[in-house]
Amino acid sequence: MTQTASIIGGGVIGGGWAARFLLSGWNVQVFDPDPDAERKIGEVLDNARRSLPGLSDVALPEEGRLSFHDTIANAVDGAMWIQESVPERLDLKLKVYAELQAACAVDAIIGSSTSGFKPSELQDGAVRPGQIVVTHPFNPVYLLPLIELVTTDANDAATIAKAQGVIRDIGMHPLHVKKEIDAHIADRFLEAVWREALWLVKDGIATTEEIDDAIRYGFGIRWAQMGLFETYRVAGGEAGMRHFMAQFGPALKWPWTKLMDVPDFTDELVDLIADQSDAQSGMHSIRDLERIRDNNLVGMMRALKAQDWGAGALLNAHDRAIATLPDLDQADLSQPIRTLHRAVPLDWTDYNGHMTESRYLDAFAQSTDRFMRIIGCDDDYIASGGSYFTAETHIRHVDECHAGARITVRTQMLLGQGKKLHLFHSMYEGERLLATGEHFLLHVSLETRRPSPPSDEIEAAMARIAAAQADLPYPNGAGNAIRKPA
Amino acid sequence: MTQTASIIGGGVIGGGWAARFLLSGWNVQVFDPDPDAERKIGEVLDNARRSLPGLSDVALPEEGRLSFHDTIANAVDGAMWIQESVPERLDLKLKVYAELQAACAVDAIIGSSTSGFKPSELQDGAVRPGQIVVTHPFNPVYLLPLIELVTTDANDAATIAKAQGVIRDIGMHPLHVKKEIDAHIADRFLEAVWREALWLVKDGIATTEEIDDAIRYGFGIRWAQMGLFETYRVAGGEAGMRHFMAQFGPALKWPWTKLMDVPDFTDELVDLIADQSDAQSGMHSIRDLERIRDNNLVGMMRALKAQDWGAGALLNAHDRAIATLPDLDQADLSQPIRTLHRAVPLDWTDYNGHMTESRYLDAFAQSTDRFMRIIGCDDDYIASGGSYFTAETHIRHVDECHAGARITVRTQMLLGQGKKLHLFHSMYEGERLLATGEHFLLHVSLETRRPSPPSDEIEAAMARIAAAQADLPYPNGAGNAIRKPA
Question: Dihedral (C-alpha) A165, A166, A170, A173: value to the nearest 10 degrees?
Fold first, then answer.
C-alpha cells in the first residue's frame, strides 16, 4: 500500500525530503505558508528527478502523488512520517510540534531536520515526546545518504526501529547517535573547519578558492570514501593504528589552530569572503552550480558503487532491496525476458544529455549478466570456476534517449546449447525501440580461460528457455553485418 | 632530455614522489639509510603503476630509471629537483640541507615534504636559502594532485616559476601559499577535525566507524568536488553568499566545538581508538585497504574527469599537455592511424582485473572521437551544428588484457564519403591483437538530428585518407555477422 509522508516546511531541505519520499513511491503532503513553496519544491524536484533515479541500477518505484495543504492538520492526515524543516528557532519548532501532535496519528514519527538542537530540547513539553526524533539530513538531500538519527530515552525501541526502517526504505542511511550532543556529529566538524577557514581568509593566508582547492585536491577526495580514521589507519601502514597515533598524537600540543578564538563577524569580513566567492564561482549561476554538483556527486557515487564501497555500497544494498527483475521461475519464458529496467544515469550521457555510445553496451552487458544469473551462472557458480565470455557483439542504434529515461531491455535467446550462448537484446523506452544488441558468448573455464561445457543445471535452464521461446520469430536485425562498401 | 629528481628519504611519502617522477619519465635517484628503503619504495611503486597511468586518457611517457645511492652527494648528482621527506625534526632537516647544498647544483630546487614547518625555518642558516621551498604533498602522493608550495621572500620569482613548472610537469597542482603559516593550510583543517573526533570518541558520542560514516556519507563526498565555500555558496541559493553568511554567521558564537581544549593523550584513549579501528577495518589488511582506497580514488577522479571539474579538470589539462596522438598532417595516412594510446584504468576492469566488456566500446568510441577530430569534426565544428552518430557497431573480442596494460588502437577508414563513415579499429597491447571494432557512422545535423552532408573540409580530409589508404587490404573480420544458429 502506498504510504504517506508529510513535509512541514519546504525550501531546499524540505524539498529534498519531499523528493526522497516521492521518488521512493510515497505520497507526499506539504505544508509551507511561503507563497513560493510550490515553485521552490518544484525546482528541487526537477534536480532530483534528473539525478536520483539513475543512481540505482534498477528502476525505482512509480513516483508518488504530491499535494500542497493550507493547514498542518490537513497536511498530516494519514501520514506515518512527518518531517519538520522549519527555521532553526526553538520556540517556533515547539509551537509547530504542538500543532502537529494535535492532529497527527499517535504512531506517526515526527523527524526534525534540525542541525543544532538536541532531541530532548524538541521533546520538552510535548504531549507525546516519544514520537519526536532528530533526523538531520545533508544537502542535497535527494543525493547524499546520511541521516543523523538522534534519539533520547523517551523514544522506545520500536519507534527507533521504525524510523530506521523508513530511512532505509527511501534509500538513506540512519546513523544512530545514541548520546545527544549539540550539533550532533557532522556539523561539529563543519563548524570547526568553517571557523579555521574564516581565520585563514581574514588573515590573508588564502582566498576562498585556494581553500576549496586545498580541500578538493587533497583530503576531501580522500574522505569521500574512507573518512578520517580509516584514512589514517592506511597511512599508518602495517605498524597499525597505535603506531600512527604515537606519531601524530604529539602534534595535538602544537598551536596549529585558532578554532575557539572566533573572528569578529564584521562587515569587512563578510565583504571579503563574498567578493572572493564571486571571483571564484560568479561565472556560474546557482542553478548551474547545483547541476554541476549533482553531476559530480552522481559520477563519484556511481564510481564508489562499482567498487561496492562507502556510499556506493549503500546504493547497492538499496538496489538489492528494491530489485524487481524476474528469475527463471517468475519469468514468462515464452516471451523475451526482461533483463534490465532502470533509469539512464547522468554519467551515461554526453554534454547535451543524450545517452552516449559506449553506455548502450554497458546496459546490454548488464542484461547479459542478468540473463546469466537467470540460467544459474551467478556469483557462486563463477566462484566455482565457470563463466561466460563475450566473443562478438553487434549493436544497432535505432533512436536516442536522455538522462533519466526509464529503459527496459528484453532478451531473446537465439541459441543456448553446450558452450554456445547467442542472445538478442532489445532496448526500449516505453514502446520506443532504442537499440538492439546481439551477442555471441562462450562458456569458459576461468582456470584455463578456454571454452568448456557449462554445468548440467545451466544446460537444463537453457533447454527450458529454448523450448519456451521456440515459436518466437527470429528478430529483425539479427545476423546483420555492416556491409562492405561497394 | 630526461631530467633527474633526487629523493631524500623514502617511505610512503618519498616513495610517492619517486613514483610521480618515474611515471612522468624522469630518472630518480634515492638516498635513504633505511635498509628496507628499496623494498618500501618498491611497494609504493607497485601501487602507483597499477593506478596512476590509467588516470590519463593518453599514455604517460616511458618510465624513467630508478637508482639507489649510498651518499647524499651521489643521490643529488645531476638532479634539478631534490625532494626531502625525512622525519619531522627541524635539527635533522637542517643537517640534511647543509649536506644537500654542499653537493647539489646551485640552480636545483630543494622541496621539503614537511607538513608542519614554515619555509623560513628550513631556510634559516642555509648557504643558499633561495633554493629551499616547502612542497607539501598528500598521501597517496601518486594519486592526489595537491602540493602546497610555500615560499618566502628569499625565493625569487624565477625559482617559484620553475617549481610550479616541475610540479605541473609531474601531473600535480601547485597551490602557492604566499604567506607562510604553521601547518600551511590543509593540515590546519585536518588538525581541527582530528581533535574534535578524539573528543567525540573519548566522550562516547560516536565510534571511529560512525565518525567515518558521518564524513563519507555526507560532507566528505560534497567536499571532494567543491570544497567548503563553493558548497556553501550553492546552499545559500540565489540570495548569494552574503545571505548565507548572515544565516550561518551567528552559529559561530555557539559552543559546538571543543577544539582548543585538547583531550589528554592517555593510553586509555589510544586503546579505545585502536580497538574501535580494529573493529571497523581489521578485516582488511593494510595492503588491501591501500588498493581499495586507490580503486575508489581512481574511480571518483575519473568521474570528475568526465565532468571536467575539480581534480578531474586538472587531469584533463595534464592530458592535453602530454598528448602525442598525430593529427592529419603528422600521421602516416597510408597505414591505419593511431587514434588511441593509453593505459587501461582501474575502473575499466572487473573484479579479477580484466578489462570489462563495455569498456572495449568505450575505448573504440574514444578512437572514433579522435578520428573525427583528425578529419575536422572537432569541438568548434560540433558547436556549429554538425557531428557524426554511430548507427551500427560490431566488436570481436580476440584476447584479454589487464588494468595498467598500455593499449593502442589503429584505425582504417573503409569508407568516408558524403554522409557515410565506415571505420575499422584494431586494438593492440604491444603486437597482440585484443579486439576489433567496426563502426558505421552517419554525419548528422544536430538541429534536425537527421543525416546531412559534412563540410567541404571534412569531405576533403576523408578523400585524402581514402586515397592514402586505398592499397590497404580489407581487414580480416570486417563485414562479419554473428551467424544464425543452424
Answer: -50
Number of other CB atoms surrounding residue A399 within 10 Å: 12
**Confidence (pLDDT) at A262:** 59
Contacts of A302 in chain B (CB under 8 A): 303
Q: How confident is the model at residue B231 (pLDDT cuts 50, 70, 90)?
A: confident
pLDDT classification of B132: cutoffs 50, 70, 90? very high
Specify the domain boundaries for CATH 1.10.1040.10 within chain A. Answer: 186-283
To probe the interface with A, which of B228, B253, B260, B350 has the most A CB atoms within 10 Å? Answer: B228
Q: Which fold has domain B4-177?
A: Rossmann fold (3.40.50)
Q: Which residues of B touch A359 (CB under 8 A)?
A: 358
Q: What is the count of residue pairs from A and B with beta carbons less than 8 Å apart?
A: 495
Q: Is A228 at the interface with chain B, CB within 8 A?
A: yes
> What is the arithmetic mean of pLDDT over B453-476?
96
The string of pLDDT tens digits covering residues B204-229 is: 999 999 999 999 999 999 999 999 88
For A5-32, b/e burial (b = at least 16 CB within 10 A) is: bbbbbbbbbbbbbbbbbbbbbbbbbbbb
**Would you identify the CATH topology of the domain A186-283?**
N-(1-d-carboxylethyl)-l-norvaline Dehydrogenase; domain 2 (1.10.1040)
| ipTM for this model | 0.90
Residue ranges, CATH 3.40.50.720, chain A: 4-177
Domain at B325-468: CATH architecture:
Roll (3.10)
The secondary structure of B109-169 as a DSSP string is: EEEE--SS--HHHHHTT-SSGGGEEEEE--SSTTT--EEEEE--TTS-HHHHHHHHHHHHH
More confident position, A274 or A126: A126
Residue A7 β-bridge partners? A30, A83
- Flag whether pLDDT at B333 surpasses 80: yes
Closest-approach residue (CA) in chain A for B361: A358
Asked if omega into B61 is within 30° of 0 (cis), the reply is no
Q: Residues A272-290: pLDDT tens digits?
A: 878 888 888 888 888 888 8
Supply the pTM of this predicted model. Answer: 0.91
